[in-house]
UniProtKB/TrEMBL annotation:
It comes from the Eukaryota. Its main location: nucleus. Residues 12-64 form the BHLH domain. Keywords: Coiled coil, Nucleus, Transcription, Transcription regulation. It is found in: Nucleus. Residues 1-12 have a biased composition (Polar residues). Residues 54-81 form a coiled coil. This is Transcription factor bHLH36-like. PROSITE patterns: BHLH.
Length: 191
């Protein structure tokens, strides 16, 4: 009787191990497909091997980390600039030493970065000029045919930090080349 009892226990353990292994594989496949869905699509027609895909994911994550760090540094500079402007407008002679002196001190300010067909637009306004963001969105969508992919803002004391990401396909009338000029002209007209 003991041999049959031993065989039953062994077969249960074997089934349990198989079930655990099957569940682990399914979970790994799910995690892998989630990871690949987050990565930019590979341009070549042939599929990458698993190690190549993992290398690509690691490189993409490193690139994102570098970008996040750059954005944090830029944000701290903008906040320091906004704070120093507030101090200067209050008649104080204190100016933060971490402020980048190449950044103009008056608001509103706009910075435009182009990455292929994507534009990253950073607008810093005072609370009384926050209407500018809506006007910039209108100009981009109605006049220049841009597709807004992200829009956001945050308020720090008296400054409003707007971020806008848009996609502009090149067309006959060259809308992409007009964007920086049109937006900077609009922002400078308010100064």
């Amino acid at each position: 009787m003991e041999p049959s009892h031993s065989n039953t226990a062994q077969s249960r353990r074997s089934v349990d191990r198989k079930t655990v292994e099957k569940n682990r594989r399914m979970q790994m496949k799910s995690l892998y497909s989630e990871l690949t869905s987050l990565l930019p699509h590979h341009s070549s027609r042939e599929p990458l091997t698993l190690p190549d895909q993992l290398d690509e994911a690691a490189n993409y994550i490193k690139k994102l980390q570098v970008n996040v760090e750059k954005k944090r540094e830029r944000k701290s500079k903008l906040v320091a600039t906004a704070n120093s402007e507030k101090l200067n407008s209050a008649g104080s002679s204190l100016v933060s030493s971490s402020v980048d002196v190449s950044v103009p001190r008056k608001l509103p300010r706009i910075e435009i970065q182009e990455s292929g067909s994507i534009f990253h637009i950073f607008l810093v306004t005072s609370l009384e000029h926050k209407f500018m963001f809506c006007e910039i969105v209108r100009v981009l969508t109605e006049e220049l045919g841009a597709e807004i992919t992200h829009a956001g803002y945050s308020i720090v004391e008296d400054a409003v930090f707007h971020t806008l990401h848009c996609k502009v396909e090149e067309c006959d009338y060259g809308a992409r080349s007009q964007i920086p000029e049109r937006l900077e002209k609009f922002v400078n007209s308010v100064n």
